[in-house]
């Protein structure tokens, strides 16, 4: 089973998403959370730290693991604190859960996004 670590980076009720390249054979053009595959020698958190630096140039300062999502791949989402401005060649932005509802996203992300829109969710009271 492919294990994937994802970063949910929240700032003032909005969340960072980037758009996968249209040329990517996997989920082309869909708006995703940054992250990627966990290498055999890594924990999901170690993979997330590596991917955040590689993909958007941010240092992971704190992370809270959320429940694992089982699907075609196993997703390990984390609520992440990573200060600074993300740098990526992909299209990106900060989106509210309501705005995310209008974006094409990976099917496995729908339930995550739904939970982000819960009034209980947020920095003070994470998911
Ligand atoms: N990064 C990311 N991947 C997601 C999300 N939702 C989702 O189902 N996935 C899936 C798509 C892929 O099957 C897998 C991640 O693969 P990837 O191609 O982005 O991983 P990677 O950066 O390690 O890529 P590579 O080394 O193989 O090029 O997880 C998401 O929000 N973000």
UniProtKB/TrEMBL annotation:
PANTHER family: 8-OXO-DGTP DIPHOSPHATASE, NUDIX HYDROLASE FAMILY PROTEIN. Its cofactor is Mg(2+). Residues 1-127 form the Nudix hydrolase domain. PROSITE patterns: NUDIX (PS51462), NUDIX_BOX (PS00893). It comes from Geothrix edaphica. Its EC number is 3.6.1.55. Keywords: DNA damage, DNA repair, DNA replication, Hydrolase, Magnesium, Metal-binding, Mutator protein. InterPro entries: MutT-like, Nudix_hydrolase, NUDIX_hydrolase-like_dom_sf, NUDIX_hydrolase_CS, NUDIX_hydrolase_dom. This is 8-oxo-dGTP diphosphatase. Pfam families: NUDIX. It catalyses: 8-oxo-dGTP + H2O = 8-oxo-dGMP + diphosphate + H(+); 8-oxo-GTP + H2O = 8-oxo-GMP + diphosphate + H(+). Belongs to the Nudix hydrolase family.
């Amino acid at each position: 089973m492919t294990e994937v670590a994802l970063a949910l980076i929240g700032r003032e009720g909005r969340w960072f998403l980037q758009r996968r390249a249209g040329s990517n054979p996997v989920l082309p053009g869909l708006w995703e959370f940054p992250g990627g595959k966990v290498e055999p020698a890594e924990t999901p958190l170690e993979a997330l730290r590596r991917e955040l630096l590689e993909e958007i140039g941010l240092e992971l300062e704190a992370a809270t693991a959320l429940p694992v999502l089982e699907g075609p791949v196993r997703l390990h989402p984390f609520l992440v604190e990573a200060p600074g401005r993300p740098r990526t060649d992909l299209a990106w932005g900060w989106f509210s859960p309501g705005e995310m509802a209008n974006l094409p996203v990976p099917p496995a992300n729908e339930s995550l996004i739904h939970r982000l829109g819960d009034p209980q969710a947020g920095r003070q009271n994470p998911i």
